Structure to design on (551 residues):
């Protein structure tokens, strides 16, 4: 090392004289002018130039020598660092981590798919080898051993859906083997899965999905959470597992809107003693779908074009479901129809339901729900041409009066607020904490109702102490969303609106405001100063989500 250092020092010393080289006085004068050199100066300049070329060649040779040396040393350094890394890996403490702890670490990597409402459903795709437990098993042999042997829960939460990449590559020949291996590694663990058939026109793919369905059907005694997104041809196959799903707690069935006759009756879920949650979507209203209700906690139905013909079925559910907490029914039909006269039948009481999400005014008039806390009134889809019946808010106020319930959360969408009807509901719910109003196709016909709502929310009354808001004084969250706004003015969002928000926030109640307006509006009532006042409320704790988008 010392000799190498001496050699480098000598190499540098050979050129120590270069900093002392300067131009002669005559050359400096000539350099700073445009005069040509004299014949004698030309000879001297040519001699000096040749010297510089020679010295440059010497310096380049020295640099090449040093550069080659550096490159060689860097290559040696890279190799040594690689060996060092290998030794550190072999001495890593993680190699001594017990398999049980590795198992828990791997469980933390588990993710689940989500359905449109955000409820976890399914998991890793069985047919995607670059994700889920397939990928974890490729990290190293210890992980592969642990994943294959000690992680049945990791394998048991799955999605069965042929990915697009497999269609492009035409690689479906190992599909059944992958599903068989995944099921084998679940080692009897309860299964949580989502089965999705894309209704492909490819005969080979249809055959593969049929075989996969049969394989899952053979494991039905282990189903705990089962979801099906299937065409009509497979919907009829759901009756095959009738009486074989004693462990099932959560079920989701969606029938794709494709050509094909749906069966008249699906009996697969008729005997499911532990069933707690059921969601139906896209199934024709005339399809009979029996299921047990003794332990039912959540029921959601979005059948196509059902109207009110399923109300007798819902009455049966209300009567026979002592544990039902959440009920949802949204009809996929465009309607602005008026409701008929009150029903002569007595209301059916459900003392357990706490959350109700519906689009049917008639349904609200035949039930009694004293424990009700949350209500959502909306059409089945957030589309400009879908509206609720005009009398749905009146039906809600009648429901609240008959039930003597006290709401804490109310959300209404795409319904015309006529006169005092929404305010009548709010007066019946003094403990309301969250209010949401949404219009997915704003029109000027909605303006009077929203102006009336803002004016009512601004009203105060004097009692002992400071003034209090007359309507829903405990309101903590207000959400107003207007989309697809036409060529019109939004007049209810004005300085009075900002004053109402400010007053409620300063009272200590209102802590969240969402105001979204999107469309081709001509104008709205807020000035720049009003918007500034609204923004400043964030400094005192208001969670503000304010978006005005002119598109």
């Amino acid at each position: 090392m010392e000799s190498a250092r001496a050699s480098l020092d000598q190499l540098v010393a050979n050129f120590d004289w270069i900093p002392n080289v300067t131009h002669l006085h005559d050359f400096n004068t000539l350099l700073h002018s445009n005069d040509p050199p004299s014949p004698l100066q030309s000879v001297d300049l040519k001699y000096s130039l040749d010297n510089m070329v020679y010295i440059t060649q010497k310096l380049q040779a020295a640099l090449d020598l040093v550069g080659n040396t550096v490159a060689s040393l860097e290559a040696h350094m890279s190799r040594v660092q690689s060996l060092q890394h290998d030794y550190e890996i072999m001495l890593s403490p993680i190699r001594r981590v017990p398999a049980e702890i590795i198992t828990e670490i791997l469980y933390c990597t588990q993710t689940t798919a989500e359905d449109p409402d955000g409820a976890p459903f399914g998991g890793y795709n069985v047919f995607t080898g670059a994700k889920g437990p397939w990928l974890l098993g490729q990290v190293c042999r210890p992980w592969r051993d642990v994943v294959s042997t000690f992680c049945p829960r990791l394998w048991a939460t799955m999605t069965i859906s042929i990915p697009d990449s497999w269609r492009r590559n035409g690689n479906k020949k190992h599909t059944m083997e992958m599903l068989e291996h995944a099921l084998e590694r679940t080692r009897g663990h309860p299964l949580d899965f989502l089965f999705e058939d894309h209704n492909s026109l490819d005969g080979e793919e249809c055959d593969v999905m049929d075989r996969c369905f049969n394989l899952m059907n053979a494991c039905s005694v282990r189903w705990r959470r089962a979801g099906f997104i299937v065409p009509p041809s497979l919907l009829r196959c759901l009756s095959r597992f009738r009486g074989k799903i004693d462990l099932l707690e959560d079920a989701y069935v969606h029938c794709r809107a494709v050509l094909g006759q749906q069966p008249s009756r699906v009996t697969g879920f008729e005997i499911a003693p532990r069933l707690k949650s059921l969601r139906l979507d896209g199934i024709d209203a005339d399809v009979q779908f029996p299921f047990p209700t003794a332990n039912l906690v959540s029921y959601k139905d979005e059948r196509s074009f059902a109207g009110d013909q399923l109300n007798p079925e819902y009455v049966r559910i209300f009567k026979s479901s002592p544990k039902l907490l959440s009920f949802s029914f949204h009809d996929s039909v465009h309607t602005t129809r008026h409701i008929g006269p009150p029903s002569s039948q007595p209301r059916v009481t459900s003392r357990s339901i706490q959350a109700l999400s519906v689009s049917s005014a008639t349904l609200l008039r035949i039930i009694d729900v004293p424990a009700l806390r949350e209500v959502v009134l909306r059409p089945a889809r957030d589309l400009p041409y879908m509206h609720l019946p005009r009398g749905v808010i009146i039906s809600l106020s009648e429901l609240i009066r008959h039930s003597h319930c006290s709401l804490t959360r109310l959300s209404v969408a795409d319904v015309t607020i006529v006169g005092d009807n929404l305010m009548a509901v709010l007066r019946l719910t003094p403990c309301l904490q969250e209010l949401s109003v949404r219009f997915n196709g704003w029109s000027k016909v909605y303006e009077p109702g929203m102006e009336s709502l803002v004016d009512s929310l601004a009203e105060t009354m004097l009692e002992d102490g400071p003034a209090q808001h007359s309507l829903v004084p405990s309101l903590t969250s207000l959400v107003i969303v207007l989309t697809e706004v036409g060529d019109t003015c939004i007049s209810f969002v004005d300085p009075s609106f900002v004053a109402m928000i400010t007053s409620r926030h300063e009272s200590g109640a209102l802590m969240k405001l969402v105001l979204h307006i999107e469309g081709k509006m001509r104008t709205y009532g807020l000035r720049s100063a009003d918007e500034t006042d609204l923004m400043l409320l964030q400094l005192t704790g208001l969670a503000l989500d304010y978006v005005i988008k002119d598109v």
